[in-house]
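Morning!

As promised:
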Amino acid sequence: MNWLPWRRETKDESFLPDTTSVTTRSITIIGDSHIQAIKKALLDRTNAGAKPRISALRLTGKKQGDLTFDEAVAFAAQRGPEDILAVIRRGNFYNTLALIQHPQAFDLLEPGADAADLQEGAELVPHAVMKDFFTSTIQSGYVKMHRRLREASPAPVICLEVPPPKEDAEHIRRSAETFFVQNNIAEAGVTPAPIRLKLWKLQQSALAASCHELGIDYLPSPAGTRNERGFLRPEFYAPDATHANAAYGELVLRQLEAISRTPNAGLATVQEAIR
Amino acid sequence: MSGHPYRALPAKAFWRREVAGLAPADVDPVGRFDLRITPETRVATAGSCFAQHIARHLKGSGFHYYVAEAGHPILPERIRESHNYGTFSARYGNVYTARQLRQLVDRAMGRFAPSEPAWIDPDGTVRDPFRPTVQPGNFVSVAEMEIDRRQHLAAVRRMLTDLDVFVFTLGLTEGWLSREDGAAFPLCPGVEGGTFDPARHVFHNQTVAEVVEDMEAVLATLRAVNPRAQVCLTVSPVPLMATAVPGQHVLSATTYSKSVLRVAAQELTDSHAFVHYFPSYEIITGAFNRGRYFAEDLRNVTEEGVGHVMRLFLAHATVGEVARARPAPPAREDAAEHLLAQAARFVEVECDEVALDRGS
């Protein structure tokens, strides 16, 4: 039965929810490219014989996707208050900005950081300036979408943190997506990892702050997925420059399942579930 | 009938013909003004709030408004603008006094390092005492402020070396200095960051001689590093927000301050062929416009007044070149943003001197 009238024809059926478990809380995750890790994890579960009660829906991009954002809003409106709706969107903004080394090298200093940590010869961009840039971008882009979902959905909305950056520049150069290849990452090089990590933190803190204002819970990336310097551990790398793999997606699924087992998915519950 | 010198004078020498007898928009008080700019001339600006208008109009008229500290290109222009990149040719904020300008130049050339430490706000963020409002949200640490300051002073050096014309608007004679080394603050410590300490900070109201001496030092340095540089001086018509002269009324203090600056500007112009005076002060404050070039607060200048100044500036400085200059096309805005931008332009330029009057 095609219970999603707007469903796209796709080979990947992992977004299909388990309609037999109507008495349990359903979990739906919508997003763009970073949702692939979750979809793959769900597919792995399905291939292993499980029947997940979680659905993952990719928003329509140029080439692929399950539903448009308007359809996602309509879908959200059909959730019950006991369900969970998670969102993972636009996590690569910081990468499109600065995965490729800018010809005019730049760096920023985090609060409490030592000046010696700056990349030699790089122009300082004051932290407040870059923070403002990310905040205004989040405000103009993500917030409108999140607000629409939040207002439409009777279910609590959870915003998922996107995976942190990869430290391995050689992996990035070797596996870069078409966008970065076309923009000449081979010659320009990769922005030093510490700078990309600072930008990721700014992006995510701006997103978390916006979520807080909207009453949306913000779920940090799963424990154990980052190395001691804060980067994505290599065992969670997807074979590209920016995304995580199914193993990472599986940990996100477990986070959400832990949350769904609690009676109310409020912020405190979320925090408790991920400990 | 015997002749006398006034018979041979041009019409602009006579009040009745060239001031009282003309429609306000037709009054042109520009005297001798030899400065010439082309669309290729790199024009740098500094000074008080009024200099921001000159920068904005130059940019909008297609002339080369030279910005030596533009902010990193990874940032969109709207973000850089909101963090005061491009407000002036470098991110020095308002430079109100000749002493401030002299010290800015000296600091850029490595000849002066003020002892005033960084100002720490109650939330732990950090301000540069010599441009305390230039970074919205402040700096995250003293280290960040010091690195940004080094970049800034390098940009000032670059600006002095590379500019063709330096437009400086003299704003104030009153200012606050460090008792320790005479460092001049743009704002009284404690107004926008810092803590006022009478044992460390002292008020000073400059005389004509002091303004001339400070500006002579600036001109000497500028011409030493850039012998072709031309200088255009203006006096800001914006009255003082407040005076710190004991017992003085702000209106009288304003008259003193502007008079000193106007005389100093004339002395400098008379002394150097490369220094030119443009009478924006006279255009805005002249009785011929019956006060219409001031906004309701009697301080801020209306867009009509700024337009009069810039129309004459471009007419006199860019003879035959205005048509060649191509104004940049306006950025696309939606209707709401356009409306807001229009309102903002009438004409509340960023002027941190307003902080003096806060809460009174």
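Chain A has one domain: 27-273.

Hope this helps with the figure draft.
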